[in-house]
Amino acid sequence: MRILVINCGSSSIKYQLFDTEKEEVIFSGEVEKIGEEKSILVHYEKGKKIKKEGKIRNHEEAFKHIEGFIKGKRIDAVGHRVVHGGEAFKDAVLVDEAVEAEIERNIHLAPLHNPHNLEGIRIAKRLFPSVPHVAVFDTAFFHNMPEEAFLYAIPYCFYEKYRIRKYGFHGTSHMYVAKKTASYMKRPLEELNLITVHLGNGASMAAIEKGRAVDTSMGMTPLEGLIMGTRSGDIDPGVLFFLIEKGLKPEELYRILNRESGLKGICGMNDMRKILEKREENSLCDLAIRMYARRIKKYLGAYMALLGDVDAISFTAGIGENSSEIRWLCCKGLESLGIKLDPEKNRLNKTEISKDDSKIKVFVIKTDEQLVIAKQTEELIQKEAL
Question: Taking a C-beta distance cutoff of 8 angstroms, is the pair 9, 118 a contact?
């Protein structure tokens, strides 16, 4: 089956056409800086790269550019990434008006993501009206966490009235990495206890017990948890009230926590590669790295306590896959807990980077969220056809 996967952001659209039988990408591309003076479109197909620059005013216009590359090619279905499914969506679903309405109702839970996800769905349905469209939700993998994991210690009526709870994100990535880890270990996922560590500009961790997510670092929104590129992660709620009393407006504080905090807030940069380069000469870069690794290490310890026995830890996403130094700092000093990193394997970015006698195996696994979306889209369509 040929599945077009679309990931629509606030100023970007990523797309890939998969042959799911061969698990091959037929073509892929990305439109960046939509709405800015100099938008960029990059398309990859048959080993060739096509790059176009010029103003693309909105998502509708961006999709028309993408359509130019797709025209004449067979597409059997379109799979859409949707960040927040709330409590309504436990699995991938065929998109109809009722699904669109529910995604819209969840906009208040993910105001930076869901509006653009929904816009992408509606535009794509107009451009490709004759094929099924499927929504795959970042939150779905965490839907079955136990209530003691997803509830906050605030009045229970807030959950009943507003559905305030931990939802978790990066679910497609954590699911993919867990399955790949099990494959490398040659054991069924249902037998394993795993900790998956997704470290990109957004970062999250998941505790996975016998194939089921039992906890995750992100919460009701992607702000909770680890220190990220521009997001604060865990913070004393009292700090927020203190800053409001000092004159910050709630909307300004929300922007700061999402876009001006994390690594950027500490050292002025959110690209870990540059921060590592400047570490020796810039004490704030060194501080940002130490804070970043310390937070991850704290979550590792917490999830090991929750799971009891842990079989493996898997690092993924841009930083997790490529930064041997960050992986080393996260695992350093945990030998007594059964985590022994092999320095040479880690430096070379091998798939398995733990020592042979490490009780807990440590892996580096390249994530593929788009493939998960394509596969879930295919599975749902085949199921509906029965």
Answer: no
Structural domains in the chain plus CATH codes: 2-137 (3.30.420.40), 186-369 (3.30.420.40)
Written as six digits, the tokens of 300 are 């590792």
DSSP letter string, 284-298:
HHHHHHHHHHHHHHH
Is-contact 174 217, C-beta < 8 A? no
Q: Catalytic site residues?
A: 138
Query: For residue 281, what are its two tokens?
Result: 């000469």
In three-state secondary structure terms, 134 is strand
H/E element, 361: strand 361-364
Q: Cβ contacts of residue 212 below 8 Å, gap of 6+?
A: 144
Taking a C-beta distance cutoff of 8 angstroms, is the pair 343, 328 a contact? yes
pTM above 0.85?
Answer: yes
**What token pair was written down for 342?**
């092999």
Tokens 């999709």, residue?
A: 63
Strands in 23-162 per DSSP E: 24-32, 39-45, 48-54, 77-82, 93-94, 133-137
* Residue 116 C-alpha from the chain's centroid: 16
pLDDT tens for the chain, 386 residues: list them: 899 999 887 778 889 998 888 888 888 898 888 888 888 888 998 888 988 888 888 888 888 888 888 887 888 999 999 988 888 888 899 999 999 999 888 887 777 788 889 988 998 888 888 899 999 998 999 999 999 999 999 999 999 998 899 999 999 999 999 999 999 999 999 999 999 999 998 899 999 999 999 999 999 988 999 999 999 999 999 999 999 999 999 999 999 999 899 999 999 998 899 999 999 999 999 999 999 999 999 999 999 999 999 999 999 998 999 999 999 999 999 999 999 999 999 999 999 999 999 999 999 999 988 888 999 999 998 887 76
